[in-house]
Design a protein that fits this description.
Elements (H helix, E strand, L loop, with lengths): L5 H7 L5 E2 L2 H10 L3 E6 L11 H12 L3 E6 L21 H15 L13 E4 L1 H4 L4 H7 L6 H5 L2 H7 L8 H4 L1 H16 L1 E7 L3 H15 L4 E5 L12 E2 L2 E2 L9 H9 L6 H8 L4 H9 L6 H34 L8 H11 L2 E3 L6 H7 L6 H9 L3 E3 L2 E3 L15 E6 L3 E6 L1
Parallel strand pairs: 2-3, 2-5, 3-4, 5-6, 9-13
Antiparallel strand pairs: 1-6, 7-8, 10-11, 10-12, 12-13
Length: 422
């Protein structure tokens, strides 16, 4: 029914941070088709790459014959999860949450199969049950099973409590119980046996397991995926220039593709195991050859292709590859207007212009040169290109320089680019 030893497969790929009662869970999923879930609170209009690993695990479980359930936190997002947050979350409006729920639901639909007969993915919203419950019933039926002493000793809460300047509000403190109730309802109504989430969700998952055990005397399971931390200490998915979003309107497919092309060398093969479906044995062979024939750069491109295809589809992957060829290999023939719009969005620095006297002025305006004198020297040394063509003398712009009548690419050497938008 399922992939041979699915849990071991996840472990071999570095996809498990913590798992409860692994032996029993292994027996269950090897002999039965189970239902599992992961929750996503719509606290923005898009998911980001930090959400990819839970989605990939859901996909792997579905491929192995199990039923994945996506729970959108329409109710819990009104509170905000305080787990390992330094400050209290901003409380979003119901209108925003409803709009974001719709957008995020569409994003998630690309990762899972919602139309297969036996184990179609299911998307739910927890406001279905929270809209029906009153505060007294919740406190009596749920709150009585939780010890304040244990709750405040959880790492995620303790870090906030020991900061007297910030602390934690009762609103955020109650989040743990809300997520626990989600797991309980899903177990009762949809026979969900397993919850997955990021490593920072372990406290919330454990609370759900506790509640189910106390109220229903059932054994359920939790599995967390590692939180990936960069060398600068920031969570994976956050960069100096901002979050890498899954929404093409917030992070262009080209910038998304380049993010993976520019990861640290030490992460390449771990990420190939985590984020792609390439066999581990093949990845290990690639790693053994990483110091030969620029193999590691090629493998970064394999990683970038697989993840861009997974998130954005084939059309946008081809666009990202065209733009890369245009900028770094000077191949202009196949470039499309939509590709240049991606560059304008967030690919390279750009500026809106009307009239520019000459190339020297454009280089200063774009900060590719500090002065006209420096610009002149750069041009004379043959280090400046217009639309991938080397320029050896000062140049007056004309319509021929405007790709699609709108764009001119200025380049200094191989790595410094700027887009003039007419």
């Amino acid at each position: 029914m399922s992939e041979f030893n699915l849990i071991q497969t996840l472990r071999n790929r570095g996809l498990i941070s913590y798992i409860t009662n692994e032996d029993n869970l292994n027996k269950l999923i090897e002999s039965n088709s189970i239902s599992l879930y992961c929750g996503f609170d719509p606290t923005d209009e898009s998911l980001h790459i930090g959400h990819l690993l839970p989605l990939i695990i859901l996909k792997r479980f579905q491929m192995a014959g199990h039923k994945p359930i996506i729970l959108i936190g329409g109710a819990t997002s009104l509170i905000g999860d305080p787990s390992f947050k330094k400050e209290e979350r901003f409380l979003n409006t119901i209108d925003n949450i409803n709009q974001w729920t719709e957008k995020i639901s569409k994003q998630i639909s690309h990762f899972l199969d919602f139309t297969c007969i036996k184990n179609s993915a299911l998307l739910l919203n927890n406001n279905i049950w929270f809209d029906k419950i009153n505060i007294l019933s919740f406190l009596r039926d749920v709150g009585k099973y939780f010890s304040i002493n244990k709750m405040i000793n959880r790492a995620a809460i303790k870090k906030r409590i020991i900061r007297p300047d910030r602390g934690i509000s009762f609103t955020e403190f109650s989040y743990n119980l809300l997520q626990a109730y989600d797991f309980f309802i899903l177990n009762q109504e949809y026979q969900v046996n397993l919850q997955i989430g990021g490593a920072d969700q372990w406290g919330n998952i454990a609370s759900g397991m506790h509640l189910i055990n106390k109220k229903s005397k059932k054994e359920v399971y939790g599995l967390t995926v590692p939180l990936l931390i960069q060398s600068n200490g920031m969570k994976f998915g956050k960069t100096e220039s901002g979050t890498i979003w899954l929404d093409a309107n917030k992070t262009s497919p080209y910038k998304f593709y380049q993010f993976w092309m520019n990861i640290e060398d030490s992460n390449v093969y771990d990420f190939l195991k985590m984020f792609t479906f390439i066999k581990v044995s093949e990845i290990n062979i690639r790693e053994q050859k990483k110091f030969t024939n620029n193999q590691i750069v090629h493998d970064k491109s394999v990683l970038a292709k697989h993840i861009t295809l997974l998130v954005h589809g084939k059309k946008q992957l081809l666009a990202a590859e065209r733009i890369t060829e245009f900028l770094f290999s000077k191949k202009i023939i196949d470039i499309q207007e939509s590709d240049l719009q991606q560059l304008r969005q967030d690919g390279i620095p750009s500026i809106q212009v009307n009239n520019i006297k000459d190339l020297q002025e454009a280089l200063v305006l774009s900060s590719l040169a500090k002065s006209r004198t420096q610009a002149k020297n750069m041009i004379m040394s043959n280090s400046i290109s217009i639309n991938t063509q080397r320029i050896s003398k000062n140049h007056i712009f004309n319509n021929h320089d405007k790709l699609f009548g709108k764009f001119t690419l200025l380049s200094r050497g191989k790595k410094h680019h700027f887009l003039l938008c007419w």
